[in-house]
Design brief:
- With 271 residues, this protein is of the alpha+beta class.
- Helix content is 44%, strand content 22%.
- It has two domains: 21-116 and 247-267, no CATH class; 125-232, Immunoglobulin-like (Sandwich), CATH 2.60.40.
- The strands form three sheets. Strands 2, 4, 5, 6, 9 and 10 form a six-stranded antiparallel beta sheet that branches.
């Protein structure tokens, strides 16, 4: 997934505040649906009576702190009960959250393929990086490009990191396959040059199952490959919403929490 950025870049063009924004619309709809599903799942998998009782006890002890703040023994006893009742509430809420967190994590990973980064634009220079297992073969690595792509600068070798990088530019939109040659092997990496929302995979990896699960949407490189990774530098996507530029994950969590509290009140579910 792409690096997350805290929303903070103000969108200065006032027309963008009201203009139709497909990524923002998609995130809003997903957040609305997920907010609803989280509340429903929580309601069905939690002990609503016990949660309600735990919250009532917390409110009672907080009220006691205000009413008897001049009585030290009552204050100390109330603080102790608040700690115990908070632990009890968290225990009651933890199990239902497990039903939500696991599928939500996989959903975020899949949506990030579309919203985390933007495709390369025609005429926009970008980097292609390859990490070679044997640094001695670094100088032998080469990049083969299909029609529509061109290398615009000599390759840069970084022996300390075992990496070689090429600066590439696209002449026209399209879905491409680039090839990296090293140690008599040829490995292929997908590349998207377009606009809008496309399913992207920034890196193709050898092995590293868990890293691939979260960062790559392509098959693993062969275990016998001399190349450990091939990476394309896609730009990070910032989504204009409410006058600010957001990373989609931040926007999703804010909107889904708002939606969750809205549906909680409508459905009368204790959280």
């Amino acid at each position: 997934m792409s690096n997350q950025a805290v929303p903070g870049a103000l969108v200065l063009d006032p027309m963008k505040f009201f203009a139709f924004n497909l990524p923002a619309t998609v995130v809003s709809l997903i957040s609305l649906v997920i907010g609803f599903l989280m509340v429903v799942v929580f309601g069905y998998t939690s002990d609503q009576k016990a949660i309600h009782a735990a919250k009532d006890k917390l409110k009672a002890h907080l009220l006691a702190l205000r009413l008897f703040q001049d009585q030290i023994s009552v204050v100390i006893r109330s603080y102790g009960q608040i700690v115990l009742d908070t632990g009890r509430y968290l225990r009651l809420a933890f199990r239902p959250l497990l039903w939500v967190v696991v599928p939500l994590t996989f959903l975020v990973v899949q949506v990030d393929r579309y919203l985390g980064s933007t495709p390369i634009e025609a005429g926009q220079p970008f980097l292609v990086r390859a990490r070679i297992a044997d640094p001695d073969k670094l100088n032998e690595a080469s990049l083969q490009l299909p029609d529509g792509l061109e290398i615009t600068a000599p390759a840069v070798h970084v022996p300390a990191a075992g990496e070689v990088a090429w600066r590439v530019q696209a002449k026209k939109n399209g879905d491409y396959e680039i090839k990296v040659l090293a140690a008599d092997q040829t490995l292929v990496k997908s590349l998207v040059v377009n606009s809008g929302m496309k399913r992207l995979s920034a890196v193709r990896l050898r092995g590293r199952f868990w890293e691939r699960l979260f960062t790559s949407a392509e098959p693993a490189l062969p275990d016998s490959s001399a190349i450990q990774a091939i990476e394309v530098q896609y730009p990070e996507r910032n989504i204009a919403f409410a006058g600010f530029a957001w990373n989609w994950i931040w926007l999703f969590f804010v909107l889904s929490i708002v939606a969750g509290f809205l549906f909680k009140s409508i459905l009368g579910i204790e959280i």
